[in-house]
Amino acid sequence: MKIKILICILMLSVMFGCTPKKEEVKLSILVPMGAPSIAVIPVLQKDEHSVNIVSGTDPLQAALISPNPEYDIIIAPVNLGAALISKNSTQYRLWGVVTWGNLYIVGENEAVLGSEGTLALFGENAVPQKIFDTVKEKMNLQIGSAYFPSVNDAQAQLLTGKANAAMLAQPLAAATIAKAKEMGKDLKVIANLQSLWKETTQTENYPQAAIFVLESAYSKNKQDIENTIALMKSYVDQCWSESSTLEADITSLTPEKLGLPSAKLVTVVFKGMNVKLEKALDVEAELKAFLKLFGLTNIRELIIN
């Protein structure tokens, strides 16, 4: 009799949904300020997971190589993470790409590139130089070039008239054009390095920031991680088709927290920032063309299974 009663209780529990609840997983995510932070806006809004937004690449590298990893997901430069994986120096693996090329040459007109003067560049021995060196023959440059410590320094050279053109990243390129207008100067984008990259490599674009996931966390909480990334992708895709809510979202979270300029400016130049989540295997050709610049050719070994 007791056994029959127990069976009835169990059956009723199943019928009325009294099964044990799955323990909620709180993921820990590390993100750099700037364009990649746009992808985590919906995660910040839901406030179910821990999101740490940091300045610069040093905290990202430190987290990637930590022997006791504290983050389930890290967004970092794809070449940085890929190099660490190839050296077996990290417990993280590549999931996919978050941001793509957003480099532009800004000047008064296209003619300045074929004239004497100075083109202010940034990112010497890093991604910007590698991209510039790959595509520069397409621009038929006669102008001289000089590298400066940061993109802000390149901007300053252009705005003060010490340089005739500058390589800038969006949204700073748009901000520079707006600032110049206030100063009575007319500047515009005179070269799109992404278009030149496509002509040169026959691939759509070059990857910049990427999602790296902790292997042990992915094995344990794969569905939670995939659901969170899917939320990020859905938000970014929505921004591409209709970015009206983006301005309000950035304003609510504050541009300072996300490491972005004004919310209005980001909304205007969003497509030029090239934030777009793509799974690594879906953009393997683009990854190969870019990582080849860093001597990395075995792309499959970088990707999470």
Notable characteristics:
305 residues, D-Maltodextrin-Binding Protein, domain 2, 5-stranded mixed beta sheet, 44% helix
Question: Could you walk me through the main structural features you see in this protein, from its secondary elements to its overall organization?
Answer:
- By secondary structure, the chain is an alpha/beta fold.
- The chain folds into two domains: 28-101 and 206-302, 3-Layer(aba) Sandwich (D-Maltodextrin-Binding Protein, domain 2), CATH 3.40.190; 103-201, Periplasmic binding protein-like II (D-Maltodextrin-Binding Protein, domain 2).
- Helix content is 44%, strand content 19%.
- The protein is built from 13 helices and eleven strands.
- It has a six-stranded mixed beta sheet, with helices on both faces.
- α2 (41-46) links the parallel β1 and β2.
- The chain is globular.
- It starts with a helix and ends in a 14-residue tail after the last helix.
Number of strands: 11
| Morphology | globular
Give the end-to-end Cα distance, rounded to a whole number of Å.
50 Å
Beta-strand residue fraction: 15-25%
Structural class: alpha/beta
CATH class of the largest domain: Alpha Beta
The CATH architecture of the largest domain can be named as: 3-Layer(aba) Sandwich
- Taking Cα atoms only, what radius of gyration do you get, to the nearest Å? 23 Å
Low-confidence spans: none
What is the residue-averaged pLDDT? 92
Largest β-sheet summary:
6 strands, mixed
Summed up, the helix count is 13
Helix content: 40-55%
The arrangement of helices and strands along the chain is HEHEHEHEEEHEHEHEHEHHHHEH
Number of domains: 2
Q: CATH homologous superfamily of the largest domain - what is it? A: Periplasmic binding protein-like II
Strand order of the largest sheet: 2-1-3-10-4-11
CATH topology value of the largest domain: D-Maltodextrin-Binding Protein, domain 2
